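Standup notes
- HV: blocked on the assembly model, inputs below
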Amino acid sequence: MSHDLSTGADPYHDIRDAVRALCAEFPPEYHRRVDEARGYPEEFVDALTRAGWMAALIPEEYGGSGLGLAEASVIMEEINRAGGNSGACHGQMYNMNTLVRHGSEEQRQRYLPRIASGELRLQSMAVTEPTTGTDTTRIKTTAVKRGNRWVINGQKVWISRVQHSDLMILLARTTPLDQVQKKSEGMSIFLVDIAAAMKSGMEVKPIANMVNHETNELFFDDLELPEDSLIGEEGKGFKYILTGLNAERTLIAAECIGDGYWFTDKVVAYAKERVVFGRPIGQNQGVQFPIAEAFIEIEAANLMRWDACRRYDAGLPCGAQANMAKYLAAKASWEAANACIQFHGGFGFANEYDVERKFRETRLYQVAPISTNLILSQVAEHVLGLPRSF
Ligand SMILES: Cc1cc2nc3c(=O)[nH]c(=O)nc-3n(C[C@H](O)[C@H](O)[C@H](O)COP(=O)(O)OP(=O)(O)OC[C@H]3O[C@@H](n4cnc5c(N)ncnc54)[C@H](O)[C@@H]3O)c2cc1C
């Protein structure tokens, strides 16, 4: 189902209204305080969980609401639009589909109802490594079968929400790169019990960073995982991760769209009120045009986001649309952020306006979860058929 702009009808207005009502209990001051304390919005994430929003993508037979990516994206969009930051909890949304689509029935039965009830959180996914960066097929973390255990060795970087999650999806090489026909083969994914892993071979080192985003370096030294922690078939992990990444990119596009609307609403209100040289600053075209331009780009990005959601939920290939939606939305929210901070003048830099916080938060999405350059190269090569550059 797509978002019908031509009639103005919003098929998701029920979800929007409900999420907005919940978010209204956590106004921007709440998120500002959490940011200043470099804390985690526990109460907010708990409230989202209790209301069932964190279980949106879990099928009904496992205790969730069985909604699609389109609905999940509305939840994330509304959090950002209300002045919050979905980065604290969006992992559960995109990781969920990896488990739902590729986990065994036994794994689904064991974990999904407990995630749906809020007893467990599945907020983390460990892919990125320090020495390989975006070149994921060269990851060096290995998983070797020893008896009925998998033994993990290696290192990850920038792995988010590990300290606020119970479970983590881990990508590791199970067949060395020089022994596979295609470099995307020979990697597998595992469901890791974080608390157990931290006692027996996984070290977690927090990385202080520009955004209040709990993210970490992980070190694996002979971490042993039970045999049944493997998700899906051995060697097919990269393919499974890609499904999750398409969901992740689409959800982050929606978050950027939420940010974009937050920035334009905020700057429009301010530009109408702030009087300099005897008139509202918003009466100057030099102020109006960058805001209007950002708004146009947000609306255009939104159309691509709905196309990505529609294709994902219909089980159609959606890699190009998910990437393009994320590219357009991250660019649009950044343009909106720039206009917002610029036309707030000095006040844009004052914490109490929340503009500088949201400005930092939305900047991340030009780099993570995938950089704009890598999206351009994906489109150039896989959509336009240009020669491969790497
Ligand atoms: C706050 C934060 C949270 C994160 N959370 C997670 C997480 O939970 N799990 C996880 O697995 N990862 C996570 N990441 C990692 C993130 O996905 C990567 O940082 C991102 O994919 C970029 O990879 P990199 O940092 O290794 O950059 P690199 O691959 O080193 O690239 C650096 C820059 O070089 C450019 N570049 C590289 N190669 C090319 C090329 N061939 N052509 C043109 N330009 C190129 C790009 O512009 C890129 O921005 C997180 C990162 C951050 C900052």
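- HV (later): unblocked. Residues 125-128, 133-134, 158-160, 209, 211, 213, 215, 364, 367-371, 373, 377, 389-390 surround flavin-adenine dinucleotide (CB under 6 Å). Strands lie at 122-126, 142-146, 149-160, 167-173, 187-193, 202-206, 215-226, 230-231, 275-276, 279-280.
- Next: hand off to the docking folks.
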